[in-house]
Amino acid sequence: MNHKLNAVLAIATILGGIAAIWFFWDKIRPLVFGQVKPEPENFIHGADTQSVSKSDSLARGQKLMPNLVAEMRADLADNPLGREFILLERSWIYNRRGNTLVYYFDDHPRT
Q: Which pLDDT score is estimated for 39?
């Protein structure tokens, strides 16, 4: 019974790894084959032209907080697999893991 459970867990682990590579292949491929890093600016510059409200919101965000948007651009260029944006105050504690990009309210006050 124990050998069957070990075999099932091994197969599930392998399939999970394959699924993860399949899901992130478009992001991993340039890193694996030494090509240029993906350009996250396309998203930040409003490449989604089908949704006017998204691009309007982005333009408004760039106007209100240009330093924050510039920092996010730089972070995405350095970490193209970043998937979570966390906003914190310096006094808060957050157990970050994985591809998390953290920004502090103290560094980017509202104007």
A: 56
